[in-house]
Input
Amino acid sequence: MSIYQQIITKKTLQQKQFAVLVDPDKITEKGLTLLAEEATKSKVDYFFLGGSLLTSGSISSCISIIKSATNIPVILFPGSVQQIDATADALLFLSLISGRNPDLLIGNHVKAAPILRNMQLEVISTGYILIESGNRTTVQYISNTFPIPADKPEIAACTAMAGELLGMKLIFAEAGSGALNPVSIEMIKAIRELVNIPIIVGGGIKTPEKALLNCQAGADIIVVGNSIEKDQMLLHRMAEAIHSCH
Ligand code: 1GP
Output
C-alpha cells in the first residue's frame, strides 16, 4: 500500500496519525537510533525528515539509521531540491501556497521533476500553508514569504480550498519549527470545514493536550519536532494523546 493510501485509510477509519520530525542537523547517530526504537514502541506513524535549512546533517545517513532501527516509514519534508533521496518511502512535494514566492510555488518543482521521474519515490503533492506564529521562524525567513495572519482563519481556509481544487493531496498547516504559538484550534476548524483532503498540522506543538485538541478540531496528522528533541518522554505521551482521538 502506498503511503498516501495508508494516510487515507487511517483518515477514513478516523485514526489520527503522528509524525515525528527529524532535523538532520540536530541529531546524532546514537540519538536517532534511540529515537527510532522509542518511536516504534509508541507506534509513531511516520518520520518526517528535512528542514528549511540544512548545514551539517545528511538526509541519506538519517534514512539509513532510521531504517536499520525500525519499519516506520520515512517521508521527506524537503526544504530544497538537494534534500531529495530515493531511499525514503515518500516525499511531500510542497508548494508554499500561502506565499507568493514563485520558486516555492513552482520553480523548484520544475528542477525537481526530472530527478523525481527517474526515481521510484512516491511523490505526494502538498499545499504548504505557513501561519504567523508570534516569532520569526526559519521557514519564514528562508522562504521570504509573509505567513497568513494568525487571526485570519478564513484566509487559511480559502488557501487550503484552492490547494485542494488545484489537485493537491494533502494540506500542511505550519506555524514553523520552534513556533512561539502553534496553529490555533479556530484555524484548524476553519480549514477542516472547507477541505476534504487530509490535514497535517505542525509547528510549536509542545503538549499532548494541544496535540489532542488539534486532532479533535480536524487535523489528521500531527507533526512534532522540537519538543521531542528536548524531552523524549514526551514522545509516548504525544503518541497516546493523538492515537486516543477517534
Ligand atoms: C516544523 O511542523 C514542524 O516544520 C515541527 O515543528 O519543531 O516546532 O515541533 P516543531
User: Anything to note?
Assistant: The two ends are 23 Å apart (CA to CA). Residues 102-117 form the longest helix (16 residues). Residues 50 and 77 are 5 Å apart (CA to CA).
